[in-house]
Amino acid sequence: MFGMICALGAKSRIRGSDCHLLYAGLFIPLSFLTWYRMLYNAVRTDSSMRYMLFFFFYGWHIVVVGIGALGINNGGVAGWITAFKTMEDNKALGVLGIIVSLAWCAMSYSLCI
Fold this sequence. Notes:
It contains five helices and no strands. The chain is an all-alpha fold. Helix 1 (2-9) packs across helix 5 (91-112), helix 2 (14-45) packs antiparallel against helix 3 and helix 4 (80-89) runs antiparallel to helix 5.
């Protein structure tokens, strides 16, 4: 939510704020199908194919979180690029963007260990 406030204040177009709605509506159900359900079925049936699919989707999640940490302009997330562009116009929103960027980096780091 804080990232959305920062992205909206960063002179981003309406396309960037629409991405927030897309991410929330698409990634929440997909996380259930590709993470939790996949791992549960892999453990339950001891299927190597399910484990392989789980780790494939896990790798893609690390890539998506890394892109979120970067914060590509009009990408719908508030990362480093968006935070520094916002810092030029509004210092308070820029600091909020840096805090959100640090959270993205912490999540990316925690996924890799």
